Amino acid sequence: MPSADYFTSKEHEDKLNAYKKFAENVAITLGATSSEAEKQIDEAIKLEIQIANITEPSEGRRDYETMYKKFTIEELTNKLPEFDWLKYLTETFSAANITLTTEQPVVVYALDFLTNLVQILKVTPKKTLANYLVWRIIMNRVNNLPKKYRDMKKDYHERIFGQQSETPRWRECATFVADNLGNAIGRLFIANYFDEEAKKSAKEMIQNIREAFNELLHEVEWMDSSTIEVAQEKANAIVERIGYPPYILNDTVLTNMYYHVDYQSDFYFENVLTTIKWNAMINLKQLGQPVDNEEWLTPPAVVNAFYSSTKNEILFPAGILQPPFYSKGYPKFMNYGGIGMVIGHEITHGFDDKGRQYDKDGNLKQWWDDVVIERFKNQTQCMIEQYGNYLVPEANMNVRITSTFHSSMPPFIN
């Protein structure tokens, strides 16, 4: 389901029924009787509705300073004794041969949610919990199952989102390879399609746009001079990553990234499970290791750009430094209107409602005073109301300014 309110709002009752039917059809195809599927899926979805009811709306989940809570496992256990956190985490990390103690620090971003969740788990039958977990795993991997399962998902999506064209199988396979073997694909991509001149041009544009941004800060009426000064320091400290990480040109490094991947040409689903296990192992083994600031957050062939609050860095993969966003054959004004627009957009993420909570070094720290924050919130609320009044005549609906607003919000306006 697209969001928690689809489980809880009467407005979406027909979509919830479509979701139930999807789950029942999958269960029946896997061998359950019609009556048993209906009964067990109904209980699992009742649990999912309970979870949806305690889920913080997406807007609230962007207040990282409020949400961030750090405990030891012992402290978390004292707060939420109904759940055996040490056993759960120990079992999880044992796959990576990592031993945990009660002194291990853990960061919790949803303490209220966990508090409510453990109460739900206490009174929910184990069979319902098992059915719910199995269903969530199956739903997550439907695209990797045979066509009859994918057709069920397609029918469900048509009920939820309207008529949709089916993604060609070749594209799904190409996407899977690109998502999971991104650096290997990236090595081939940059060898065949990336012009090194793009890196030099992008670096020059970033510097010019950064300077223009710093000048515009002086026109922001709701910021005081001291905040503007610190904002400029943060803008100047933004690290740019352009094109690709140098380490993927090293054959040894690239080979070591995939040494444990053993794909079999006749076992597609097993290959998917191998990839999931491999990715999980990489993440688990990072516990206790120093942060690698040179590691890229995305592979080179991706057609997108990114800003990281915790690293205060902007990242422009080789995939987006291509037409129509950029070409060395374009006049400068076209490149500034293409990739230049993207550069400016990513820089502003360091100062939007999420980025403002992190300082120039990527630490979660309030560097705006309360007065400036209040002015910022008033300014953004004004924009929400302005765009929320726009009517889409074809749908007879006003524009909904919620989850998409933060990604498109230009925060530095007067």
Automatic annotation (TrEMBL):
Names of required cofactors: Zn(2+)
Matching Pfam families: Peptidase_M13, Peptidase_M13_N
BP GO annotations: protein processing
Highest taxon of source: Eukaryota
Xref: SUPFAM superfamilies: Metalloproteases ('zincins'), catalytic domain (SSF55486)
Peptidase M13 C-terminal domain: residues covered: 304-406
UniProt organism field: Octopus bimaculoides (California two-spotted octopus)
Cellular compartments per GO CC: plasma membrane
Keywords assigned by UniProt, alphabetized: Hydrolase, Metal-binding, Metalloprotease, Protease, Zinc
One MF term in the entry's GO annotations: metalloendopeptidase activity
Peptidase M13 N-terminal domain ranges (all copies): 1-245
Protein name (Swiss-Prot/TrEMBL): Peptidase M13 N-terminal domain-containing protein
Gene3D superfamilies hit by this protein: Collagenase (Catalytic Domain), Neutral endopeptidase , domain2
Family annotation (PROSITE patterns): NEPRILYSIN
